[in-house]
């Protein structure tokens, strides 16, 4: 009896393995195929839904000192030491300085030129001279460029809890 059951099971497995009909093909609409997504997520897993263009950020910050939101834009620079900050173009020759929540993650040092979606908080903040010089060093600026930093800067900053890098 055991041998007959074994032969019957073996015949069924061979038959199943030789079945070349894909039952899902009959139900799948080619128009619904999912396109490959070419991006990386850093920090918290976030989605792109609801992101505003970076060039609208200054207008949204009018009269506020901070604002939680998602923003999408182009990266102009990233820390060349370990990827612990980025600069995003916000239009009109301005940039937003981006750091990462609790220093909990970093982005690739070659992020400049890529598009990114951020989730977190935008703030208007004053960066002191020592911090600005530190950022210039991280960016690989020359001694002359670093020495030329003599005034604090009021700027748009952002603390991201998650980043989608395209």
Question: What features would you describe in this structure?
Answer:
With 166 residues, the chain is of the alpha+beta class. It has a domain at 38-125 and 154-165: Nucleic acid-binding proteins (OB fold (Dihydrolipoamide Acetyltransferase, E2P)). The protein is built from 5 helices and 7 strands; from the N terminus they run ααββαββββααβ. Strands 3-4-5-7-6 form a 5-stranded mixed β-barrel. Strand 4 (86-91) and strand 5 (94-100) form a beta hairpin. The longest helix has 16 residues, at 2-17. Residues 1-34 have low confidence and may be disordered.
Produce the secondary structure layout.
Layout: H1 2-17, H2 23-27, E1 40-43, E2 52-53, H3 57-61, E3 66-78, E4 86-91, E5 94-100, E6 115-127, H4 129-138, H5 143-147, E7 153-165
Parallel strand pairs: 2-3, 5-7
Antiparallel strand pairs: 1-7, 3-4, 3-6, 4-5, 6-7
What attributes does this structure have?
5 helices; OB fold (Dihydrolipoamide Acetyltransferase, E2P); disordered N terminus; 7 strands; globular; alpha+beta; 5-stranded mixed beta barrel; 166 residues
